[in-house]
Design goal:
Phenylalanyl-tRNA Synthetase, Chain B, domain 1; elongated; 3 strands; single chain
Length: 120
């Protein structure tokens, strides 16, 4: 029996970064990738995909050792490739949801009356 089957899977934000090439570390097609993914977004995506996940904010991807973006560790249930693709789809949905919430917050700020301040 191979020990490799029992290991957890490690995923770095660079795997999902549309700004990076294959040589720089992107592991999914550009169509599934997003620009500058954050480790928190990746963590939320893993949670939404019902994966057992641990956040490691101090880790760095070996090809970009100077840039400590962090990593997530996922309990292995399936192959790394299939987990990677499902995470990419979930990550895209998380990004869309976060952008929608941010847009709503900005709209609420614009709707506030500017002259309605309290007087001392």
């Amino acid at each position: 029996m191979s020990l490799r089957r029992d290991r957890d899977l490690v995923f770095y934000p660079e795997y999902f970064d549309a700004n990076l090439s294959w040589a720089e570390g992107r592991r999914i097609p550009r169509q599934l990738a997003i620009k500058s993914p954050k480790i928190k977004e990746l963590y939320i995506a893993a949670k939404q995909a019902n994966l057992e996940v641990t956040l490691n904010e101090s880790m760095a991807y070996s090809r970009r050792w100077w840039d400590r973006k962090g990593a997530i560790t996922v309990k292995k249930r399936d192959s790394k490739t299939s987990t990677l693709k499902s995470l990419a789809k979930s990550l895209r949905a998380v990004r869309i949801e976060l952008l929608r919430k941010k847009k709503e917050m900005l709209e609420k700020k614009k709707k506030r009356p500017t002259g309605a301040r309290k007087r001392r």
